[in-house]
User: What shape does this take?
Amino acid sequence: MSELRELILQEYSKDHSIFIGEVLKQKPKLIPEFIDIIYLEEEPVSRRAAWALRLLFDDSPSILAPFYDDLIVHLETIKSPPILRAFLAIISKIKIEEKWYGFLLQYTTDAILSPQTEIATKAFSMDIFFQIAKTQPDLFYELEQMIEHIYPDASKGVQNKCRNQLKWIEKMRAKA
Assistant: This one.
């Protein structure tokens, strides 16, 4: 683990994070150890590792497929906002298995409705809820209700996300 930690701490840049992703693609057996570094939530190494993980996912999502369940399981225990953002960004782009619907619906509902939730976390939570709602259209009503509740006091970024979500809901209903 110390070699990976040293690699992560060498530099903090997008190029270096992409380089770390390339190392992990070449040596996928290092990925579990790399994710364990993230779970430690030690600054700054865990935050930097989470960013590299997200960039790796953006480049090669299938390489992280064996770890999707593990990332979901750890959502409740993650305290670091940057790590949470990275995990939610990844989860918002995967095909979510039905076994996670209940957990993720509750988790994202809590995140969406909490005034303490950061903007990006709220936005990714809406994306995850919407993705599940596409498989169970009755949930669109619940998402609309949450949007109505948070919209008046939300930041401009969240309000924009809310308007876009409502447009997507209307498009989904039009297809039905």
